[in-house]
Amino acid sequence: MRVLSDLEVGESGVLVSVDLPASVQNHLMYMGFLPDARVRVLHRAPAGDPTVYGVAGMEIALRRETARAILVRTTRIPGLNDEPTENRDDPTHFPNLPKAV
Amino acid sequence: MSTCCTPAPYAPPAPRSGEALRTVALIGPPNSGKSTLFNRLTGLRQKVANYPGVTVEQRMGAMAGVGRADLTLIDLPGIYSLDPFSEDARVSIDVLEGRMTGTPKPDAVLLVLDSLHLTRQLMLAAPVLALGLPTMVLLNMSDLMESRGGEIDPLRLAQELGAPVARISATKGSGLEAIQLFLNRHRGPDSTSLSATVLPVLGNAMSTYKWATQVSTRTGYRAPLSEEASRKLDAVLLHRVWGPLLFLVVVFSVFEVVFSIGQPLSDGLGDLLARLGTSLAGFLPDGWMRSLVLDGAWKGVTSVLVFLPQILLLFLFIGILEDSGYLARAALIADRVMRSIGLNGKAFIPLLSAYACAVPAIMATRTIENKRDRLATILVTPFMTCSARLPVYMLLIAAFIPNIAFADGLIGLRTLVMLGLYLIGFLAALVTARLLKSSVLRSSQTPFILELPQYRMPTLRSLGLRLIDRGGVFLQQAGTVILCVTLGLWVLANFPRHHGVAPQLTDSIIGRLGHFMEPAIAPLGFNWKIGIGLLSSVLAREVMVGTMGTLYGADPQTQSLSLQTALHHDLPLGGAIALMVFFAFAMQCTSTMAVVRRETNGWKWPAIQFAYMLVLAYGAAFVANWAVHLLWG
């Protein structure tokens, strides 16, 4: 378990918990910061803070003080850590099969 | 592209007599393409910017774009949920629930969702559908979704939501006929049948998310491949070194282009207008009539009109920055600086748009969640160099600053002076914000949460609409306020008459008024004509230029000279520099004061702001005049 602000650019983790005032937490959840959501560190602002995180297909910038309150799991579990929309080699996905009606 | 409109699984309600559909609300998350759709449906000019929270107040327009000009469309700010987190979310909720005074409760809702990120966007559908208004769900950017390998079954989605669903593309204008169909079917207010729909517990993000995930799974939604181009661009534009450097290059080149392309255009327009004035004079009899039309109205109004090319160029650049999505990145880069003055990067977005005009910028502060942060931003926004200051700066720089080039012609002295003026305005904003945030407006920090939209190519249509809109405002200002002021000035400059002859300018009413106030402004290096200009510019900054045009036009000694030459002969260098500094700091804009009064609910803050800026302007102009005297004697 690590705090989100400790992750390096390129790393990703699965969101475990958010410890912020209720209104802020709720707002973050509507923006995609939900339990089990995959969060990826995309960029840091030139000054090193804030950081841009990729979550639910969107890019959200948070300051370090906010990201510090977000706990993520970064253990690699094969298949779970791969972002489904980007993994074109996923063996379970057969794009050429006829689709179920 | 295939578009389809699916019927909802309930029978369309029978039309009720006497109750017609009148108002329709347009709602959706930020960056779902709502404002573009609003433009399509209304054909009205509406600001479309590619950063979250641009629609800061609800806009209305007749739905002429789908042949229903009898219906009013209300555009609401982009929101993530119906939980009020910021001012603009509160506005949306109030309008939807009919609690916004002056805005009728909508009879139907168009919910726009970005189909590239449908699962998360569906989280807004739950509370909107729960309102019980007839609702149509519009899956925007569906063409993009399909081309990138995404999928959705709109029929299943309609069944799940209990509301009709249409796939549209607001940028291409496809799928709009489905909206027309929906509107024609709903003739009066009724409730959407929710019997077939299971909605989650409202106000709970977790259960709403679970519901949204289930709905998107059941409707066969497959998210498209994510766009990598935006991230690659950000790797450069947010780079530790290149990011800030490119930011400065962007800002600098905007000014360079406004000068190097705008100036010849403006000179050309000036020549044309002057020649037009001369031939116009031929039709008028020699006498007071010709003097009124030519020296009063024409000289005054055209001296402001010539700056139209530069102002349009400036709005074009700000428009490109906004529409492309770069503005949100600028906010991110600026967050560190903004934090040091006690604000966050979000406050930078209004400050940057204030380079065009402070009025929309002050309205854009509604996206700032913290009330005290918002007030501080409102109070410092008028320090940013708005386009109305451009005519004054341009005129004074052209008249007083020699055209010297440095670094092999890469940069001119005039550009440097202009950049300096922009810089002192920006610094005044920062210092004032710091003072406010460490004293009367001290507050605990609200977290900085900013969504970065994907980069988009700004469309000619949107940029064109914006320029027409701004050009119209400028021309209207020139045709009303400036025309009235210059006509009034001409009268005051030509009376009292002795035996039917106009007095010497110094003996006219305006001359006496000017001489009366001269002692107050003499320490700044200003003469009485500048004093009259300053008085008239309280209405709007650019009026100053029109006033000077009329005053020098009314004086036989300077009548034949161009405004630049006349000023150059009449004002010492110290006074000219002091005048530019005065304009950098003073609050001379009734529109800004009115919008500050509205946003802060009273006259207290605009009065404090006006007084503070006036004192600062006077003090700085005094120092500038004195410094020039010491340095250049």
Number of helices of chain B: 26
Mean of residue pLDDT values of chain B: 82
* First-residue to last-residue Cα separation of chain B: 73 Å
Query: Largest sheet of chain B, if any?
Result: 6 strands, mixed
Strand content of chain B: 5-15%
Class per helix and strand makeup of chain B: alpha/beta
Task: Write down the CATH class of chain A.
Answer: Mainly Beta
- What is the average of the pLDDT values of chain A? 78
Runs of chain B in which pLDDT lies below 50 for 5 or more consecutive residues are: 1-18, 47-56, 188-195
CATH superfamily of the domain at 23-218 in chain B: P-loop containing nucleotide triphosphate hydrolases
> How many strands appear in the DSSP assignment of chain B?
9
* Strand-residue proportion of chain A: 25-35%
- Counting DSSP H or I runs of 4 or more residues, the number of helices of chain A is 2
The backbone outline of chain A, from C-alpha atoms, is globular
Shape of chain B: elongated
**Strand order of the biggest β-sheet of chain A:** 1-6-2-3-4-5
- Classify the secondary structure makeup of chain A into a structural class: alpha+beta
Q: What CATH architecture label of the domain at 23-218 in chain B applies?
A: 3-Layer(aba) Sandwich
Write up what this structure looks like:
The complex is a heterodimer of chains A (101) and B (633). Helix content of chain A is 13%, strand content 30%. By secondary structure, chain A is of the alpha+beta class. Chain A has a single domain (2-73), classed as Roll (SH3 type barrels). The longest helix of chain A is centred in the first third of the chain and has 9 residues, at 22-30. Chain B has a domain at 23-218: P-loop containing nucleotide triphosphate hydrolases (Rossmann fold), CATH 3.40.50.300. Chain B has 633 residues and is of the alpha/beta class. Chain B has helices at residues 34-42, 87-96, 118-129, 142-147, 154-161, 176-185, 205-218, 229-237, 242-260, 262-281, 288-305, 308-324, 326-340, 348-353, 358-363, 371-380, 389-400, 413-437, 460-494, 509-521, 528-536, 543-554, 563-570, 573-585, 590-600, 604-632, and strands spanning 23-27, 59-63, 68-75, 108-114, 135-140, 165-167, 405-406, 411-412, 449-452. At the A-B interface, α1, β3 and β5 of A face α3, α7, α8, α13 and β9 of B. β5 of chain A pairs antiparallel with β9 (449-452) of chain B.
